[in-house]
Specification:
By secondary structure, this protein is mostly helical. It contains twelve helices and no strands. The protein has one domain (2-243). Helix 3 (49-71) packs antiparallel against helix 6 (90-116) and helix 6 crosses helix 7. The longest helix has 27 residues, at 90-116.
Length: 244
Amino acid sequence: MVRAVAWRNVRLRYKSSFLGFLWTLLNPLLFLLIFLLIFSEAFPQVENYPVFALSGLIFWSFFATTSAHVMGALVENAAVLRSLAVPPLVFPLAQLLAGLFNLLMSFIPFAVILHLFGRIPHSTDLLVLPIVLCFGTFILGVSLALSALNVYFRDIGLLWNALLPAFFYITPIAYPADLVPERMRWIAEVNPLYHYIAAFREVLYYGRVPSPDQWVVIAGLAVLASTIGWVLYRALRPGFIANY
């Protein structure tokens, strides 16, 4: 059921679209163009700035888009959930699966663009997959908690859309992390996205294996977020029908 709903979501998202899955990469590319025009000369210490920026942007776009879709999944399918005996968890899981599918499809043009900017493939590139698995689990946990709360308080969706730009700017995506002043470094480090983007960039930009500490942090964040999301979902599940 999850697979069928996810495929429906993918088809509906790109129905009558000429570019299809390429739209998954369009948003990061627009941001990259802005970064090249504004920031490329501001960070001369960053070698091959387009690869540096794009290796963060593609995964930020995955987080922002997928978390928004998963968060709204229960409310958007309220009519189905009222009339059919469908487990509500199907719809958040289907949105996550659709987001992962879009991300994997976008890796094809993403790899081509990185090659055009002079990036050489590394054997460590395959490590992106376990990092994506941890990142997807983290997104599901956070978004599942938000989707359950959104059933009761629709302000959650509006608040999340307002917070996403703030997360974007406090996460070192357009700028290197070492530019963050030492007294403010803790703000970046308590942001989970900081650790995931750093792990992706370690593999795709530096061509290195993330350190054991990085693996522990991103796996631990995934377990913590998914546990909190599941507990909150189970606690709020009995009141869904009355609040759809």
